[in-house]
Amino acid sequence: MCEMTTETIATREVRSILSSKVPQVTVFFWIIKVLCTTVGETVSDFLNVNLGLGLQGTAIAAGAALFVALVVQFKTKKYVPGVYWLAVVLISVFGTLLTDILTDSLKFPLEGSAVIFSVALGLTFSAWYATEKTLSIHSIFSARRELFYWLAILFTFALGTATGDLMAEKLGLGYLVTGLIVLGVIAAAAVAWRAGLDAVLAFWIAYILTRPLGASLGDYLSQSRENGGLGLGATATSAAFLVAILAVVIYLVVTQRDASADPLKPEPPETKGRNVVWQVVAVVVLLLGAGAVGYKWRRAALQQQAVASVSVDRPLGDLSTFRHLALTMRDLVHSGEIAAATSSASELETAWDHAQATLQSMNLDKWTRLDGAIDVVLKCVRSSHATECGASLEALVAAIDSLDKPR
To answer: Of 3, 132, 141, 197, which cross-links 18 as Cys (Cβ 3.0–4.6 Å)?
Structure first.
C-alpha cells in the first residue's frame, strides 16, 4: 500500500511538472486557428483604418497586449483555453502588422518579406530541433520549448501574411482564388500525411498555410465588391469571427475536448533519421519549385495583359477610380468630415493595392510616382493634421491627371 502511494505521488508530481501548455490537435484546433488568422487580418485593418491608429500605433497597441498575454501564458502551469487562444489572436494581429509595416511603411517588397520570414522560421525550427530534438507540439513542457513554439508561430503568421498578400494583391489572383489554392495545398499535405509523411512536418505545413487561407477569407468577406470581396466590412467581419472564437473556446472550456494529453503516455511516433531529413528536403524543394514556377508564370501573364491593355489614352491604365476617391476625400476634408475621409482613404489604399500587379508592370516609373503621392495622402488623412490635407489631395489629383493624359 505504501509503495502504491509513493508511486501515485511521484506520478502526480511528474504530471504536474510536465503539463503541456498547448491544446491537442483536434478539429477544434484547426477551426479556431483559421478563425484567429482571419481576425488577425480584419482586426489589424479595423485598428489601423477604422480607429485611425495607423500602422505604427496599431503595432504598439497590439505588441503591448501580446506581451501581457504571453506573460500570463508563460505563468500558467498547464493549457488554459482562454489564455492560450487570446495569445494566438494577438500574435496573429502582430504578425500581420510586421509584414504590413515592411510593405506599406518601409516599402519593402512582399517577395523580400516572404524570404526574410522564411529564413527566420527556418532558423527558429533549426535551433528548436538542435536543442530539444523534436518539433512536436505534444511536448511543450518547458519554458524553452514554449519560447521556441511562440517564436515559430509569430513567424508563421508574418510569413503567411506576406505570401497571401503577394498572391492575392501583387500577383492579382484575388482573395477567393488565393484561398482556394492554399486550401488545395493543405489538402495535398493531408493526403501525403496519410500516405506516410511525417506527422510533425505535415502539422507545420498546415499551420503555416492556414495563415494565408484565413487572411484570404477575411479579406474576401470584408473588402468591397469593387476590390473582389463581399463588402461586409472589417468591423462586421471582425465582430462575427471574434464571437465565433469565443463560442468555440467556451465550448472547449466546458467539455475539455482539446485538453492536453497525459504527459506519461507515449507521444505519437515521429519519423527519425535520414527519412525525415529527406522528407523535409523534398517538401521544401517542391514548395519552392512550385512557387517559383507559379510566380514566374503569373508575372509573365500580367506583363502580357498590361501590354495588351495599354493605349494612347490610358498610358497607366484606367485611373478614374483613384481620381474619384481622391476628389471625394478632398471634398470631405474641406467640409470637416474626417471620419468619412479616413474611410475613403481605406478604399483608396485597398483599390491601389489590388491594381498594383497590373499598373506596376505597365510603367514602373509612373506607378512609383503615383504610389508616392498616394502614400503622402494616406499618412496625412490618418494623422492628427487631417484638416490640413487639402494640398496633398490636390497634388494627388494633379498627378493622376498628368499620368492619365495621352502621350
So the answer is: 141
**Contact at 8 Å (CB) between 230 and 186?**
no
For residue 304, being part of any structural domain is answered with: no
Of 121-130, 287-296, 315-324, 376-385, least confident by mean pLDDT is: 315-324
**In this structure, what are the phi and psi dihedrals at residue 399, rounded to the nearest 5 degrees?**
-65, -40
Averaged confidence pLDDT in the chain: 79
Residue 269 CA to residue 43 CA, distance in Å, equals: 38
> How far apart, in whole angstroms, are the C-alpha atoms of residue 3 and residue 397?
85
pLDDT value at residue 188: 93
Could you report the per-residue pLDDT of 207-252, keeping only the tens digit for each? Answer: 988 888 877 777 777 777 766 677 777 677 778 878 888 898 898 8
Say whether both 252 and 332 belong to one domain: no
Is residue 117 scored above 50 in pLDDT?
A: yes
Q: Which domain holds residue 358?
A: 311-403
Query: Are 131 and 227 in a shared domain?
Result: yes
Count of the separate structural domains present in the chain? 2
Partner residues linked to 317 by β-bridges? 315
* 3-class secondary structure per residue, the chain: CHHHHHHHHHHHHHHHHCCCCCCCCCHHHHHHHHHHHHHHHHHHHHHHHHCCCHHHHHHHHHHHHHHHHHHHHHHCCCCCHHHHHHHHHHHHHHHHHHHHHHHHHCCCCHHHHHHHHHHHHHHHHHHHHHHHCCCCHHHCCCHHHHHHHHHHHHHHHHHHHHHHHHHHHHCCCCHHHHHHHHHHHHHHHHHHHHCCCCHHHHHHHHHHHHHHHHHHHHHHHHCCHHHCCCCCCHHHHHHHHHHHHHHHHHHHHHHCCCCCCCCCCCCCCCCCHHHHHHHHHHHHHHHHHHHHHHHHHHHHHHHHHHHHHCCCCCECECCHHHHHHHHHHHHHHHCCCHHHHHHHHHHHHHHHHHHHHHHHHHCHHHHHHHHHHHHHHHHHHCCCCHHHCHHHHHHHHHHHHHHCCCC
Average pLDDT over residues 277-296: 88
β-partners of residue 315 are 317
Which amino acid, one-letter code, is at 104?
D
Residue 280 in domain: no
Can you give the pTM of this predicted structure? 0.72
